[in-house]
Design a protein that fits this description.
- By secondary structure, the protein is an alpha+beta fold.
- It folds into 2 domains: 1-105, no CATH class; 107-310, Glycoside hydrolase 144 (GH144) (Glycosyltransferase), CATH 1.50.10.
- It is built from 11 helices and 16 strands.
- Strands 1-4-5 form a 3-stranded antiparallel β-sheet. It has a 3-stranded antiparallel β-sheet with strand order 14-16-15, with no helix packed on it.
- A hairpin with a 2-residue loop joins strand 2 (49-51) and strand 3 (54-55).
- The protein is globular.
- The protein starts with a strand and ends in a 10-residue tail after the last helix.
Length: 336
Amino acid sequence: NELSTVDTALLIGGMLFAARYFDGRHADEAEIRQKAQAIYERIEWPWAVIRDNRITMGWHPESGFIPSDWHVYNEGMLVLLLAVGSPTHPVSVNVWHEWAASYDESWTDRWGSWHLNFAPIFGHQYSHMFIDFRGIQDAWMRGQSAQLGEQLDYFENSRRAVYAQQKYAHDNVAGWAGYSSEVWGLTACDGPGDFKQVIDGKEREFFSYSARGPGERDDGTIAPTAAASSIAFAPEIVVPCVKAMKQKYGTGIYTEWGFLDSFNPTLTVRDGPLQHGKIVDGVGWVDGDYLGIDQGPIVIMTENHRSDFVWRYMRGEPNIRRGLEISGFTGGWLNA
């Protein structure tokens, strides 16, 4: 069991959206608004700041706080902005400044344009489900824009990260089956298991559930959510990717509930037992599960792309706006 600060943030993001959506006079809708705000206001964010200006990733009842903090660019932006913007138990804005001070460690032009890198693409997706980062910048992004001579914000950063994923699959230096400029996408997902196996004369190492990404942990496992949940950032390459996956692998990876969590075209025969999923003829290894943490972003980001749906409501969410403004964000819809 873990009390996760990012899972808390994702829950609160959804609750604050529900509070904005149910804006009618009916008593049930009023209760939704009241309870969503009340639960958010009860969260004691400073309790999770156990090291200087850093929020811990979690706490276990058996062992206490875990050693990892929200530090270095990743999916933790929503955690920090909700904590800074809390009307009852806020953390110091220095928590955001400490977070951004680590960005130089993540700044790279590997596989394309300069951007803040976090190898598994979910780090570029989760905070964007609930916050429209288009056209708004904090001090770090304003500084980088001036240095580059072009507009850079967190939305554009995610767009560049999506293109980096495509470029990595196109280059396919490791020679994984199925990787191409049309079929790509690495993120945290299920895998076949933790084992090594010789395939076509080369020893390959595979993993069970793991955070996969370009240049880091990669075992040839493709996750449809990696591309599909990026549709709002780069529809021009995401839509062809999703169509290509479905056309090439068909019902082997796509059923009445949509895409299964992941598949691995390199692993077509297993020497020993699999920990997850099964080998499917014409595909390779295929997971047997759908994971909510992967399906949710597909739905939310598809609708943000299609109709601006969640973003439209959340641009008017006062707690989100407060967190952004205290953290130094300006421009775009914040100035409207």
